[in-house]
Structure formats: C-alpha cells, structure tokens
Amino acid sequence: MDLNIDFTVKERFLSYVRIDTQSDPDSKSVPSTEKQKNLGKLLVSELLKIGITDAEIDEWGYVYATIPSTVPFDVPVICFCSHMDTSPDCSGTNVNPVIHSKYAGGVIKISDTLVLDPAVHINLLNQTGNDIITSDGTTLLGADNKAGIAEIMDAAAYLIKNPQIPHGKIRILFTPDEEIGRGVDKVNLEKLGASFAYTMDGEDSGTIEDETFSADLAIIEIEGVSAHPGFAKGKMESAIRFAGNFINDLPFETLSPENTSDKEGFIHPVTISGGVEHASIKLILRDFEANNLKTQKELLLNLLEKTGLRYPNSKYTLEIVEQYRNMKSVLNQFPFVVEYAEEAIRRAGMNPQKKSIRGGTDGSRLSFMGLPCPNIFAGEHAFHSRIEWVSVQDMQKAVETIIHLAIIWAEKSKV
C-alpha cells in the first residue's frame, strides 16, 4: 500500500527537543521534574488539534489519547508508547538542534571539540544522503526518546486525516521518568485499555527488540569509625577508604560495562558519596538471565566481606532492589506481536532485524504488568551524550512502520 505521507516528523522533533524534560533520580515527586509536563501539555494540545478528542495529561504527567477504529469488526486494542524525559546523565537545557543536510560521508563536526566519526559510530555508514540531526555539542539532543514521540504524533496525524486506512482502536501513551526507571510507576493500564503495545525507543532502522537485560540496583551502606586525623592511628576506619577499596576490587576485565558486549552482563558502580564515618555506593546489576543477578549479588557480598577484613570495626549492609526483568519470557508467549512488527518493517521497505537491548525500556515492565510490549526502532543513536544523533529519513521510516503495523493488526483480525 502506497501511504503517500506528507511527513511532519522532522518539524515536530525539532520543536520537542527544545523543551527541557530532563528527569531527576534524586527527586521523590511524580513526575520527578515538573518541567516534563510542559512537553506533555504541548502534546495534548497538538493531539486535540489534529482531531483526537480525548487527549489528556493526568496529575502524574502521563499523556493518554485514542485514535478511533475505522473498521466494523473487532481488533485488539494496541498502544504506541514513548517517554518524554531525557537522561540526567547530560544536560537537556537549551538544546539547539543542528541539521547536517545530505550527509556525504566522513566526519561530522559538532563543535570545536566534538565530532561524529563513522570509524567509531559505524551506524553513520548507512546514512549517506540522509539528513542528520545533532545538538550543537553543549547538550544532548533528546532523540531518546523525542524521536519516538514525534514519530507517533506524525503517524497519529496521518491516520486521523486518512480514515480510509483500515485499523482498529489505537491508544497513545507518553510517559515521564523512563530514564530513571520509573516510567510506568503510575500508568493506569485499566484506563489505557490496550491488549498489546509497542515502545518506539530503538536505534537502527529496521530493528525490533524483544529482549532486554534483567536489572537490579545494589545499595551499599558503610559505617566507618571516625577519629581526629592527628590521633587516628589504630582508631580510624574511613568509610571512604572502605568504599574505594571495594570498588577497586570489582571485576574490570570482565563484568564491567567498559569491557562487555552482546549478551554479557555487568556490575556498574554509578554513584558514591559520604565521608569518614559513613559512605554509600549504588551499583546497577545487569544480565539477560535473571539467575545471573543472584551470582552478581554473591560476588558483591564476597568482596564486601573481603574488604571488611581490613576494617574490623566497620559495618556494612547490602540491599538489592529489583528494577525490571527480561521481557522475552513474556513476549515468547505472544510471538505474533513481534511477527506483525517484522511484517510492518518489511512493508516499509526494510529488512527486519531482531536484537537484544543492553538496557531496558518501559516495555520491559509493561510486559510483566500484563501488556506485552516489544521495542521498535526510533532511529536514535549515541543517546545520553552530547554527540547524540538521529536521521530524518530513519524517523520517517519509523512513521511508516507504525502505520503499516496498525493496518496489519486489522488485517489479521478480519473475519
């Protein structure tokens, strides 16, 4: 089917990335930053403008909307989902997007000190002739996940404008705080009313991801022994030194993010704080097999015990907080959800590629909450950094994929 789309995804994306929506892992509020609602309110306004009558943002910052069915028979309700927040790892304030038109190959200069080199970022090798968008190098870009939002918005506008396109009822969900692991904490699945979902939050065009890490957070609290440093011999046991020795003994050649890839898991210290008397360490534990997280926990306990021998009067605790689990175990029960997405990618003119995510998405937790939810490419690359980029043409392909996927669900449901 020739969709003949008058794309608006680029213009929408350039508008959305200028809105600062950085989330805050230290905040206890929902959403973690009130400014995320600024984008949510804009999206509601735009959804109403294109003709969606029930678009709304709730008190928690979640945006819900419905594209009504255009067919006279029952089709399972599907949902397309993206998150509004950007990573706290890199500033999202005053994003200035820059378009590098008709990329001719070679190095892209982002700033005086930052470049995109295809020798390092090999995804660029497939982008010759495309229009690449980056920031100006002072902030991240926000393609993760405002590319996904722009794609869903463009597809929604097209489907509303073209009621002759056969599809069932479609729900739209935009979430806050995905980057800090709280993206579906307050989602109302009963209100959403979908049977299956797709997050638009992936990388290379043509990819669909049906497997994620399983993830835990490890929190270590260390209580040292304080003493005046001039009279500390035989008395002081510095919690900072305890923490430093412990971190130094963590595996590096294996089980570190710096030295793992593909299906290899890791233990990654992300924060350390404190003083002589007390110190805290937070680490993230990641592996595709949930049972391996138990092995990682045992490794931490063994290292703590070993380090503690040097500090006999100090105390420590280890708390493990479950974050999310590999969604593949759920999606394997509904193989057609992924198969339909693969067919949609083919109809959009690409070869589908199934991949595993060395991370997580809202779809991870949604799947275990009863809403099977694989992840489809959005075209974002080098996320969480000042060299983040996306191509306009990849975003357009994602829009096509969403529309074809809606059509396929109707085709498969027709009696």
Query: What does the overall shape look like?
Result: globular
Count of β-strands: 17
What is the average of the pLDDT values? Answer: 96
Tell me what the CATH architecture of the largest domain is. Answer: 3-Layer(aba) Sandwich
- Could you name the CATH topology of the largest domain? Aminopeptidase
**Strand composition percent:** 15-25%
- Tally of individual helices: 10
Description of the molecule:
The chain folds into two domains: 292 residues, Aminopeptidase (3-Layer(aba) Sandwich), CATH 3.40.630.10; 110 residues, Alpha-Beta Plaits. Strand 5 and strand 6 form a beta hairpin. 47% of the residues are buried. The two termini are 21 Å apart. Helices cover 29% and strands 22% of the residues. Helix 1 crosses helix 3 and helix 8 crosses helix 10. The radius of gyration is 23 Å and the shape is globular. The chain has an eight-stranded mixed β-sheet with strand order 1-2-8-3-9-16-10-15, with helices on both faces. A four-stranded antiparallel β-sheet has the order 12-13-11-14, with helices on one face. The longest helix has 22 residues.
